[in-house]
From TrEMBL:
InterPro entries: NagB/RpiA_transferase-like (IPR037171), Ribose-5P_isomerase (IPR050262), Ribose5P_isomerase_typA_subgr (IPR020672), Ribose5P_isomerase_type_A (IPR004788)
Protein species of origin: Hyphomicrobium facile
Name assigned to this protein: Ribose-5-phosphate isomerase A
SUBUNIT field: Homodimer.
Binding site for substrate: T28, G29, S30, T31, D83, G84, A85, D86, K96, G97, G98, G99, K123
Encoding gene, per UniProt annotation: rpiA
Keyword Membrane (UniProt): no
Length: 240
């Protein structure tokens, strides 16, 4: 089986958590897109849900499939969000933002009662940080913001290139919110919580790609089958 097949397996498993009448958050990225496709088929067969997409790309995909959409202004509390990750560890800590949607993804996730992360086994790690950590930053004062990020990250034992993300057109990547992304190649992050706290002190940082204490369940598919990771303090699995 291919990585694409494993992504679909994880998405299929996540679909079993969806119940009629739910208010859902829809993630962004290649694995989340598999889930949206499967959800669209269920909606076509009669499943009743209403969904908040985490990006304009996901919004377009869901709308094309006939999935009913809403906003967090109209529906500020969600039952469940299904999203992917660039990295996930055994404590359900994540790095997200490879697709540039980390701010909306975090807003939607925190507005949800429960969050399920789906991924293929290449995203499963012992320690976060091999994937460069994305930071969404405002364009104003970018150089000063970058310098302070480097300084505070170093205080947390994290050093490496902090690079402005560039789009396929050679220009700075622009998020759906009109911001830029800095990708931080820190390598292994010994203390993700401390780094996340430090990055929040930088005024120009809108949000970091560290998702800590947010995910309830991780569904990882690979050559050995589907692995389900559950948070120690969550009763999520018991409810289904």
């Amino acid at each position: 089986m291919s990585t694409d097949d494993w992504k679909r397996q994880a998405a299929e498993q996540a679909l079993t958590y969806v119940e009629d009448g739910m208010k859902l958050g829809l993630g962004t990225g290649s694995t989340a897109a598999k889930f949206v496709d499967l959800l669209g088929a269920k909606v076509k067969s009669g499943l009743k849900v209403v969904c908040v997409p985490t990006s304009e790309a996901t919004r377009a995909q869901a709308a094309a499939l006939g999935i009913p959409l809403t906003t967090l202004d109209e529906t500020p509390e969600l039952d469940l969000t299904i999203d992917g990750a660039d990295e996930i560890d055994s404590d359900l800590r994540l790095i997200k933002g490879g697709g540039g949607a980390l701010l909306r993804e975090k807003i939607v996730a925190v507005a949800s009662d429960r969050v399920v992360i789906i991924a293929d086994n290449s995203k499963r790690v012992e320690n976060l940080g091999l994937f460069p950590l994305p930071l969404e930053v405002v364009p104003f004062g970018l150089g000063a913001t970058q310098n302070l990020i480097v300084k505070l990250a170093a205080d947390c034992g994290c050093e490496g290139e902090v690079k402005l993300r560039v789009g396929t057109d050679g220009k700075p990547f622009v998020t759906d919110n009109g911001n830029h992304i800095l990708d931080c190649a820190f390598g292994l992050i010994d203390d993700p919580e401390a780094l996340d706290d430090a990055l929040k002190l930088v005024p120009g940082v809108v949000e970091s790609g560290l998702f800590i204490g947010i995910a309830d369940v991780g569904i990882i598919a690979g050559p050995k089958g589907v692995e389900v990771l559950s948070g120690i303090e969550t009763d999520f699995e018991e409810d289904f």
